[in-house]
Amino acid sequence: MNKMQESENCKNCSCKTSIFSSLTPDELEQINQGRYTVNYKPGEILFKQGTPSPHFVCLTKGLAKLYIEGYGKNLILALVKPVDYIFGPGTYVDNRHYYSAAAVDETTACLVDVNIFKKLIRQNPDFAEEFIQRLSRQAIFNFDQVISLTQKQMPGRIADVLFYLREKIYGKNPFEISISRQDLADLSGMSKESSIRILKELKDEGILKVTGNTVEILNEKQLRQISQTG
Amino acid sequence: MNKMQESENCKNCSCKTSIFSSLTPDELEQINQGRYTVNYKPGEILFKQGTPSPHFVCLTKGLAKLYIEGYGKNLILALVKPVDYIFGPGTYVDNRHYYSAAAVDETTACLVDVNIFKKLIRQNPDFAEEFIQRLSRQAIFNFDQVISLTQKQMPGRIADVLFYLREKIYGKNPFEISISRQDLADLSGMSKESSIRILKELKDEGILKVTGNTVEILNEKQLRQISQTG
DNA sequence: ACATTCCATTGATCTATCTCAATAATGTGA
DNA sequence: TCACATTATTGAGATAGATCAATGGAATGT
Predict the structure, then answer these.
(1) DSSP labels for A60-107?
(2) Which residues, 6 or more positions from A96, have their beta carbon under 8 angstroms from its beta carbon?
């Protein structure tokens, strides 16, 4: 199971560089107080859709997926890597999670009491503004995703996911995907068989190089074209 | 074209009852200062996706649709009726609209300078919190919509839209839809021909009564069932 | 090393949904 | 009131994508 562990102070943590940059040392110390660190093994659930949401999660190591459990299958909303935090919309509505989160790789996360967070939002306008910016960016990302999922055909959707993985998650070009083909399918709203087939097609056309879990985008222009065409 | 008009004070406006309830009289007066009222005829555009977003919009009369212009077709994100306001995610990101808005019925809206809004967010924590709640609820709504669009078949999607129209927009059971069949299709992510066919099927099965633009849900339980089944 | 389990791959079939095309109905302006 | 334009409806054909079923590979535990 997960083991708890004492960790260093927030003040030295790389998390500080993201939204927390607008916090004063004193406020950061408050975050530090109501905080604990947890390790997760691949596949382990951080939290389940529908359960209460008493804290927000800051990922310090590893990779996690956020997914909605729908009718029979899942939709992966996003992957989360360090340093990023997970703050579901339920926190300000009914204190419930509206999606589940699970570790993909070996993952470490800090859990912080949500009330401290809310208090800081009220008392620090810079922090509040930063947070609203975050929510806004997320909403924009979701718009792009919806359009991709509802208006593009499978090759276009896979192309979008591949760009997402390269640019936002792994950040380099031959990249090794730690997510499964099923996850790839859940990211692009199709069956896993279809995701495999499309991947193979792109490989056969020389647009991708696929070796096991390593993917390289060979012909960026053409893949971009496929993303546009739908 | 649209005619500008002087209108009463925000203090007497029914808009006050929504998010603005947390504003002090003085703050409400600030909103009132940087505000003007515009009328739109059916079909007229309130703002276009991609254009700058210098104010937020408060709907005081009529009905508007918010839609993303995608690849060849539109996706309607939501319908907006009084008293509700439209605040796109671009405002806190790059000051661009990420969706378009158009009047469905004869519509009146108040446009308020977004900088006043942002200033009030910073100075009034209750208002900020209220606003974050709004964004959160919207995100949750979007989640439901994505799942409906990507994981349900056409009858389920139409069922969801019909419930949405009855509960959130028209608020009564035999309701007259002022939106077109194309809009219905854009709400449920299908072609207009398909939306018409599904509507007819539901009518033939006795679940709906459809006369022109008037729709009545006759068998709520069965329609709920269809929504669930996908 | 071997068995077991899970994940990836491939092929064949089936079906939900789109597209195209034709017709009907409704609204609109002169 | 009539012509024109827009929207709604219906049918037939084409297809993207799902599902089912079988097989191959890799990882894991004993």
Answers:
(1) EES-EEEEEE-SSSEEEEEEE-SSEEE--GGGGTTSB-SSEEEESSSE
(2) A50, A51, A52, A53, A90
- Contact residues on chain B for A68, CB-CB shorter than 8 A: 143, 146-147
A182 is near strand C: CB distance < 7 Å: yes
Q: What does the pLDDT look like over A141-173, one tens digit per residue?
A: 999 999 999 999 999 999 999 999 999 999 998
pTM, two decimals, is 0.93
Q: What is the torsional sign of CA B111, B114, B117, B119?
A: negative
Write down all domains in chain A, each with its CATH number in brackets. 4-142 (2.60.120.10), 152-229 (1.10.10.10)
Task: For strand D, give the nucleotides within 7 A of a protein CB.
Answer: 7-12, 16-21
Low-confidence ranges of chain B (pLDDT < 70): 1-8, 14-17
Short-list B164, B162, B167, CA closest to B142? B164
